[in-house]
Amino acid sequence: MRTQIQPKPGFYQHLTAQQVTDLVESLVKHQELPRQYGYVGTGAQDWDQQATGELFLARTRLLDANRSYLSELISRHERWDVIDLGAGNGWPARQILSWLMDAGRMGRYAATDISADMLQIAERNIGTWFDGQIPYEGHIIDLARQRLTDHIGHDGYTARLVLHFGNTLFNLRDCDQAFRMVRGSMTADDFLIQDRYIETPQDFLARVADNVDSAPRLPPTQRFLVDLLGINEDLYTIETGYDPLRGERFKRIRLTTSASIHFDTGPVVDLDEGESLLLNRDPIYRPVELLAKLGEHGFTTIHTFQSDDDKRPLLLTVSVAA
Length: 322
Hints:
Blueprint: E1 3-5, H1 9-14, H2 17-30, H3 42-49, H4 54-65, H5 67-74, E2 80-84, H6 94-103, E3 106-113, H7 116-129, E4 136-140, E5 159-165, H8 175-184, E6 191-197, H9 201-210, H10 220-228, E7 236-243, E8 248-255, E9 259-261, E10 269-271, E11 276-283, H11 287-296, E12 299-306, E13 314-321
Parallel strand pairs: 1-9, 2-3, 2-5, 3-4, 5-6
Antiparallel strand pairs: 6-13, 7-8, 8-11, 9-10, 12-13
């Protein structure tokens, strides 16, 4: 006997028709819920509330440790435009925007995200932090499929800092393609500034073992989309682990009963008992592997810096289009 499920009304309010189609296709073909759709509606609000957590403080320390280098980089051009990949609430970019403002070299700030709700939060925050002095642009872009140049104009001569703070591109099913499209949108005067947690699979699995919960729940931004689909918590168990074939850590839910999801349009999606749905993927890289990946994507890395956190260091990279 299959449990019959219908998405909640908010599902259709928060996602566009194209996004619903993409999500259904991902369920059918890949048994996966696209991570980026967890940042709409209250999912965006949940993420905004997490913005001062451990990662953000670690990033602040990382950028402070590299301020001398980044200030010298900023001094190379009279003006910089900033493109923020997966801007979230704008907090990750705040430090660099502040330095550009202090140097009198701030041009446009183009925030990209797949979530209109997230972009509205970023616009509000940037306006508050900088008293409306930074020209803000919000662009809804699916970085898995769309080139930056299809949405963000360029005058042909202003240098740009392309910021990738967080996991936006890494969480995509084909992050290699996404990186190549970003590379294809950059000019010789542009720089990609990125940070990334560095660890081994063994380190990750040890962290998972140290944080076993007798009654685990999904984080709010991951649970949000599952709840919107109408998949109640009593219908699944949660699995966290490492896929050695793909070199990725993952979080997924495994159904404890068969179910059918009835969408307003499109096919009924049947899910069998024991079937899993992937909620999050994240490649695990050592420093040399990450630099090699950037090279494969068409970048030359000109600066690296690793934080001194023994347990889970952050690696900052500054790269140019090769």
